[in-house]
Structures are given as C-alpha cells and as structure tokens.
Description:
Layout: E1 2-4, E2 8-10, H1 12-15, H2 22-35, H3 38-63, E3 65-67, E4 73-75, H4 76-106, H5 110-114, H6 121-149, H7 161-180, H8 186-202, H9 214-221, H10 224-237, H11 242-270
Antiparallel strand pairs: 1-2, 3-4
Helix pairs in contact: 2-6, 3-4, 3-6, 4-6, 4-7, 4-10, 6-7, 6-11, 7-10, 7-11, 10-11
Amino acid sequence: MGAAGHGIPRPAWLSSLASGNIGAVLERGFAVVRNQNWTVLASGFFEPVFYLLAMGIGMGALVGTVTGPGGQPVEYAAYIAPALLATSAMNGAIYDSTWNVFFKLRFAKLYEAMLQTSLGPLDVALGEILMALFRGFLYALGFLGVIAAMGLVTSWWSLLMVPAAVLIALGFAALGMGVTSYLTSFQQMDLINFALLPMFLFSATLYPIAVYPDWIQWCIMAMPLWHGVELMRQLSVGHLDALTWVHALYFVGMTLIGLVLTTVRLRALFLR
Length: 272
C-alpha cells in the first residue's frame, strides 16, 4: 500500500496511474469552454432537432402510428424522438472525445505536458471523458426539453432519460478517447464518421429493427447505439423489463473497457 494526497492510503498500482487531481483537468476544460466559440458547441444540439422536425413531423404525417415498446401503438414522431435523444448524447460525447482529443494528443501535445506534472494517465483520461460527458449532457437535456414541450413523452419514467443519456455519453466518450489514441492522421479520423453514420441509420433509429432479416438484426443488436435507442424508447413510454438492464449494463461495460484502454494507451505513449 502507498500513501498520497492528504495521508489517504491508496494501492501502489493506483498511485502510479493517478494523483487524484482530476479537478485540475476539469478546471482547464471549463476555462476553454468559457472562451470558445459557443456556436460550434450549439451546432450539435440542433442536428437532432432538425431530424425530428423533418422526419417526425414531416414524414410522420404520412406514416401515422407504429408499434412501440410492449406492442403499444405510438405516433411516429414519438417513436423516433427517444432515438434521436440517444443519438444526440452520442454525438456530443463523440465530438469531444475524438476530434478534440486528437488535436490535443497529436498537435497541441497537451497530454504530454500534463503528464510531466503530478497528474497521472488515469487523471487525464477521467478528466477528458467527464468533459465529453458534459457536452453530451447539455445536448441531451436540451433535446429532452424540446420533445417534452412537443408532447412526445408520455410517462414520468421519461425523467430517467437524462441519466440514461449521461450513461450513453459516458460509454461513447470512454471508448471514443481510447480508439482515438491509436489514430495518427486526419484520414484515419474520417473512419470515425464512416462508422457513426451507418450506425445512426441502421440502429432502428427511424424504423423498427423487425424490417431486417434475422442475421442483420443480430448485427444491429451488437451496435452500442441500438442499445441506447431501445433504452430511451422504453423509458419514454414507461415500458421497463429485463432488457432495460441489459441495455444499461452494455454501456457500463463499454465505459470500463474504454477507460482501461485510454489509461493504458496514455501511459504507453508518454510514460515509457
């Protein structure tokens, strides 16, 4: 056992990874947020709103009702709104944990500088993931306000869509930062968009998964966004069952894998 900070004992392996000063990383992150161009930050919020207006209200007038969780018929706009909320949380977290991290890692050399201080790789990883989480939380909270004002949520369980959105954002942020640590060029970064677009289109976001053959359904059910979409859809109508836990635990596992991956990579890159 080792000792660090204010005499609080910590395991030796943890002392080599973290100083416990995540607040320093967050303080720097919020200072940057205060001074950045807020129009860039706001752009990620409007994207799902435009999809909701175009697809939910526009196309929804032609579609009518579809079968929702538990076999309940729901208006098409109410069917896709929870899915777009999950997408909004994903987008907010991914933008911060991939492109921003890529710039800091490969060009600004920010993490290299941080790790020359008392900060450990776990401090940096957690701090950056929490900053990405903040962006995902803002997008999710704003979008939930929009769909609630439009009358597209019908259950008090829908209040849990906010912490669910945070969990979804946490999973994507943790894994996104870990994957980005392996990418070294802008061409490789384009692979992230290449993966996100089909995941958005095919994760039962705009129509039920039942339209696909069985083997394609299994492929879709392996995607993280599908679990986020189903989790949000169940909460929006208050239909909870055992699968609700499966969807939530999927993101818990995704977060743990991403956090370990990011910590190991930062240590390998800068603390050899």
